[in-house]
Amino acid sequence: MIAFTASDRRNAVVAGLALGALALALFSPGLLNDPDTWWHVKVGGWILDHHQAPRVDLWSYSRAGAAWTAHEWLSEALMAAAYRLAGWAGVTALCGAAFSLATWLMGRRLARDLEGTLLLVVLVLGLSLMGGSLLARPHLLALPVLVAWVGGLMAARDRGTAPSPWLCALMVLWANLHGGWAFGLAIAGPFGLEALIAARPGARLKVARDWGLFGTLALACAALTPFGLEGVMFPIQQLSMKSLAGIGEWRPADFSHLEPMEIALLALIGLALTRPIKLPPVRLALLVGMIHLALSHGRHQMLLGVVGPMLLAAPLANGLAAPREASAPGRWVGALATGLAVALLMLRLALPITRGDSANAPMSALDSVPAAVRASPVLNDYGFGGYLIWRDVRPYVDSRAELYRDAFLDNYGSLAAGDAGALEATLAARRVGWTIFPPGAPAVALMDREPGWARIHADRFAVVHARTQP
Prior knowledge:
The chain is mainly alpha-helical and 470 residues long.
């Protein structure tokens, strides 16, 4: 009779959830439902063709030639390569594989302390916090690096040593994939502080030196991008922008309806009130800081979904003292999971994805614009900018907020919200020949009343106005 170990059972839970995450990403229509995906693939195609990362804006007309740090250049090149190989199914497969790998890596870390139902619940809660960011964008390709980085820091603390310098190789990859590398560097600080506090008085100088050298090396590795110091400064410059508060993913959490963030917080509060869940002071401060970030900016819920479960795994195991679960098949878990993952990826690649009109891709509306009109400057909705770039139409604005900066975005926000003066000034100053906005946008009502303008197309996704007089 074959005996299945606790390790087999834990592997089965982790592999099952990794496969579930893969299937969700591969076959969820929401993965491609983001305007940024269009321009990321377009920019990636330029990178592949020119064998370099762009340093100035080549895609808008309002900021043409302005300095631009394409800090996600490697992710964009990978997405463009996937698109050229297998269309949108290729992009989906690439992003789905990254999400599944991150799930597997996180599950492996959690399985060191948890098993059975508790492992399943904690991992599912973590994944649910990531669900809102399950979009075909560079942050998804960097997600496995985030998990591996945090796991490496925690493994170093488990050993009672500073992290291996080889961990900094992840920082080189991360800095070229996504600007979130700055969070990875920041989170190393609390773990270094914890090591310093835990060290014997005579060993603290060595601990401070070892962790300080690691942090310095990691920062130096973050500069190993086509942009050097400019790339290192980019996250600081972006976070200093006041206009980020008006962008959806940078807005605070909304509890007007039940969402994963609320469920996770309620579960954590319930456990804290009923069980002796104890975190070391520094890790408690780190967790509280992560919750604050997630409440302040929706995009940081993904970070909480990764770091929170990894910080809480050991305290939960100690506080709940969960009993061992019944045996379950697990001897061939690895081989079976790998085979199923390959099968899912092949199935996704075999089923082409055809894109149609959507809230971020006004295909029919753009097709209706005569070529002569389309060649003139456009005033467009923020969410349409990515698709216009994809179609080789230079937009007035798109989602590269770091390119446009505060003053430009403030003016755009005013005209998009219905400020007639800002709208008319922009139409004149930019010599705009046509506009494209969603039907419910305040700018549409203003354009309907604007002298010398007329609607030339309207559907449920977009309304196009064009000049009737010079």
